[in-house]
Give the backbone structure.
Amino acid sequence: MNLNLDFSFYNWDLISNFVLKGLYFSVMLTIVATLGGIFFGTILALMRLSGKKWLDTPATIYVNGMRSIPLVMVILWFFLLVPLLIGRPIGAEVSAVVTFIAFEAAYFSEIMRAGIQSIPRGQVFAGQALGMTYGQNMKLVVLPQAFRNMLPVLLTQTIILFQDTSLVYAIGAYDMLKGFEVAGKNFGRPIEAYLAAAVLYFVMCYALSWLVKRLHKKIAIIR
């Protein structure tokens, strides 16, 4: 079977006009969702470790519920149902940002919970002996060490998040995959466009994974 592949139509003008716009949105979505996910994920982790049932129960239900639903379903539900509830459309980009933050918070919560529990209890007791409150102990003693211990895992989850940004294709958001698709349709070369997209995703994610491994080794040496 002769596929007759032709990549000669790829040039800087095509990349700048079609791909870069999508790449910018994919990177922006990854950064915003990571920061938001870590922030709300840390809050969820603290709620689950608080020892108070009225905090632990809703946080557990939220985390387990989100982790049991495919991300693409959450994206579609939010994009289709929220406009019906508020009476106006919210746009694919806004919907993607909110959905990713809400979804990733559940995964980052489990990472942060594991990081917090990895800190020796003796350090927590030492903080309490100095008269620190629960909040001060977490802020000054536990969380800084937990973030350092979990940094490679947090970055690995961020790489997975970047790969998942291609799912916003389902609601028509203009991400990197959408940019390649539009370019392929305009030039009548959809197969070449999807192959180029796959190669770029692989190169970027492989390079980031290599950097995470290097960082993990440095952190292990510091310990």
Summary: The radius of gyration is 21 Å.
